[in-house]
Structure formats: structure tokens, C-alpha cells
TrEMBL record:
Subunit structure: Part of the small subunit (SSU) processome, composed of more than 70 proteins and the RNA chaperone small nucleolar RNA (snoRNA) U3.
Limits of the Ribosomal RNA adenine methylase transferase N-terminal domain: 37-206
UniProt family annotation: Belongs to the class I-like SAM-binding methyltransferase superfamily. rRNA adenine N(6)-methyltransferase family.
Organism: Parnassius apollo (Apollo butterfly)
GO cellular component, one term: nucleolus
Reactions the enzyme catalyzes: adenosine(1779)/adenosine(1780) in 18S rRNA + 4 S-adenosyl-L-methionine = N(6)-dimethyladenosine(1779)/N(6)-dimethyladenosine(1780) in 18S rRNA + 4 S-adenosyl-L-homocysteine + 4 H(+)
Transmembrane segments: none
Protein keywords: Methyltransferase, RNA-binding, rRNA processing, S-adenosyl-L-methionine, Transferase
Matching HAMAP family: 16SrRNA_methyltr_A (MF_00607)
GO MF annotations, alphabetized: 18S rRNA (adenine(1779)-N(6)/adenine(1780)-N(6))-dimethyltransferase activity; RNA binding
Stated role: Specifically dimethylates two adjacent adenosines in the loop of a conserved hairpin near the 3'-end of 18S rRNA in the 40S particle. Involved in the pre-rRNA processing steps leading to small-subunit rRNA production independently of its RNA-modifying catalytic activity. Part of the small subunit (SSU) processome, first precursor of the small eukaryotic ribosomal subunit.
Record-listed S-adenosyl-L-methionine binding positions: 30, 32, 57, 78, 106, 121
Name the UniProt record assigns to this protein: rRNA adenine N(6)-methyltransferase
EC number annotated for this UniProt entry: 2.1.1.-
Amino acid sequence: MPKIKAEKKSRIHNEIAKQGIQFNKDFGQHILKNPLIITSMLDKAGLRPTDVALEIGPGTGNMTIKLLDRVKKVIACEIDTRLVAELQKRVQGTPYQSKLQIIVGDVLKTELPFFDICVANIPYQISSPLVFKLLLHRPFFRCAILMFQKEFAQRLVAKPGDKLYCRLSINTQLLARVDMLMKVGKNNFRPPPKVESSVVRIEPRNPPPPINFVEWDGLTRIAFVRKNKTLSAAFKHSTTMAALEKNYRVHCSLHNKEIPEEFDIKQKVQEILVSAEADQMRARTMDCDDFMKLLHAFNSEGIHFA
């Protein structure tokens, strides 16, 4: 009996293997095979029968089929045409066929349609760009339940002062509420990845904070290059100063402001940092409010990061 059960669980994988389809690690193809974890992820998504769900990297369709059971429509984005064919074959002639839309291609280069929920086992090498593609997507979606490499997930939820707190942490938390939901061992995948995984819930802030994200990203990029150094030290890099001075001169030109002959960008930046009481602060301990105040202080003096 146990042998029959084991065979049944991996039936889809075995069929694919018979056809000579090997999972492509270049695409980050580690198929989630444990049905209990798939069910748990869907339970935590708060799915509604009227939802349009986006799934990225559906693979052999283990999660797709369960999603189709619970929502109005599933949009599956898959880059591997071999797996697209398998997924189409799996729903062919079933009530699911009309509920499934497959987008073939690289999700990072695809213009995503409207969706309510995103539930996905994310190919790990596209984790960071994909998070920001989703968070900057309009119209807003309700939430995303995403599987990531464990350390990446820990960075997403890290707080000021944590060892893993970084630019990814603060940029994500500016745009969304992020929660760690569960850990997933490597043996729940086929083939098993080299690292452990974690599932994270991401809920976009709606309305979003009243901030130019490109400017914000420019500021945090400078501050987190050396997150343990004071901001006063972080801003002393010559290429940083050159970029800020160029932006300042463009700003003054657009607003018909004269620039004094003795103008010194280093002095200007230092004055702003001191007046904002941020010169001795370090990025690793600063939260979103700290960076918002600092960005406003720079912008109000004509210093821009984009």
C-alpha cells in the first residue's frame, strides 16, 4: 500500500519524466510537490470565489488545479513551453479549461493584467525584481502569498537593527505590509533546492505613501551601501556627490535659481544632514519615517536623487 501511495503522489512528475522533460534549474524550476503546503498557502490567501488569481511559474500545475477549484479565474505565467503544454493537457476537457489563462513568457518582461491575488512558488533568481514589479503594479491587488528562499524572506521582514535589515527590507516595507507565514523544508520540492524556503504574505499599502519611489530608492541606495557607517560618512563618496550636484544644478536651472560661485555640494549636503539631525544616524537603525523626513529635508533644499 505505501508504494502505491508514493507512486500516486508523483504521478504527474513521472509522466513528465517519461516524456524526457527534465526540470530546468536555469528557470529556477523546483516544483512544490507537498499538497499540504499548497493547501496551506491557499488557505492563508483568503481566496474568494469571485477572485482573479495570478500564479507565476505554475510548473506542472499542482497549485494551479487547487486554485482553479477556489477562484473565478487563474492567470498562469510560465516561461517554459514544455510545461505550458503539460498544464494545457492537464485541464483539457475539464471545467477548469475555460477558467485558465496562460501567459507564455518571462514575467519580468510581461505586462500583467488585473488580478486580485497572487499565489506563487517564485523562481528564486527573480525574487527581488518580481517583488517590486508586483508592488508597483496598478491597479492594486489585495495580497500576495509567495514562496521565497529563506534568507530572502528574512530580509523582506527584517526590522531596523536586525542583522539582515537592508535596502530590500525598507523599500518593501515602504510599499507593503510584510509577514512571515511559514518555513518550508527543501524536501518538499522536486528537485530539492540547495536552501530552505519560507512563505511570505505581502499586502500593498493602499493608498501608497505620498512619495516618489525613484527618489526614495536613490536615497536608500546611498545610505545602505555602507549601512553601518553614519550618513555623514555615507554621503562623502565622490560619485555620489557628483550625481547630487548635477541633479541640483538641473533643479536650479528649471526653477530659475542662481547658484552661488562658491557653491560646495559637500557642505550643502552636510548642512542638510545636520539640520535634519541625521548626520550621526546609520541606515541599519533607521525606519521608513526616518528616511521620509530625510528625503523631505533634501528635496526642500533642491537636492534630488533622481
